[in-house]
Amino acid sequence: MTKYYIFRHGQTFNSKNHVPYPEDNFPIEILPESIPVLEKLAVYLKNIPSDYNVSSEYVRCQQSVKVMTEISGLYFDNESRLNEFDKGSFEEFNKRIESFLNDLNQKNYKTVVICTHGAVVAGLKNILLGKNFDETKLRDFPDTGVLICIEGQKIEEINFNPT
Prior knowledge:
Elements: E1 3-8, H1 13-17, H2 35-46, E2 52-55, H3 59-72, E3 77-78, H4 90-105, E4 111-116, H5 118-128, E5 146-151, E6 154-159
Parallel strand pairs: 1-4, 2-3, 2-4
Antiparallel strand pairs: 1-5, 5-6
């Protein structure tokens, strides 16, 4: 059984201020103040042996995994199916996530680390837990700085944000 460690990219101006992303949000960058949270998350992941690490291609995810790699030594592949849900239908988005998970299941990985976006986290979480994933659950994801650990039907959230 695969254990998944899933986290959102570092905080952006949009996520911090609850402002919708513009149509072209590929180049949106993380805020410098989100780096210490990512560093704490990276220290935690450094002690987790993983078989596969993968990230969205968007700039904010690439910046986040760069911090991860510098601290944890984990290297991340890029995966377009983990990109933000900003174009196309919900059905296409859902199929893209299911396709990604089906490919992972064929690899028999024990541990996978994923860096992606809120709606993708919601999809991964609901599908992995065997729940129905529909458009009403697109916001079913934690804040940036929270790591979700899923194994079978068990889910744990670890918050690396300052308290």
